[in-house]
Amino acid sequence: MDIRIFVGGLSAALLRRRAAMPPIPVRVVRASLADVPLRPRPRPPHRPAPPVRPASNM
Fold first, then answer.
1. Are 49 and 55 in contact (CB under 8 A)?
2. Of 12, 14, 18, 29, whose Cβ has the fewest other Cβ atoms within 10 Å?
3. Which residue stretches does the UniProt record annotate as biased composition, category Pro residues (predicted)?
């Protein structure tokens, strides 16, 4: 059996099954949160990199 024919038959069967099922109702979790804009995360203060320390064997 050719693999392309097999995959084509499977995808056609899945599409037929999905078309026969009723659509899934969309539930709003909390409508009150939809109007609240997201606050940007506060940026941490800039910290410079620690100074380069010489190796202990120098």
1. no
2. 29
3. 47-58
Is the distance from CB of 47 to CB of 41 less than 8 angstroms? no
Amino acid at 57: N
pTM of the entire predicted model: 0.35
- Give me the count of residues in the chain: 58
Question: DSSP letter string over 1-58?
Answer: --HHHHHHHHHHHHHHHHHHSPPPPP--S-GGGGGSPPPPPPPPPP-PPPPPPPPTT-
Residue 34, C-beta contacts closer than 8 angstroms, at least 6 positions apart: 28
Alpha-carbon torsion (32, 33, 34, 38), positive or negative: positive
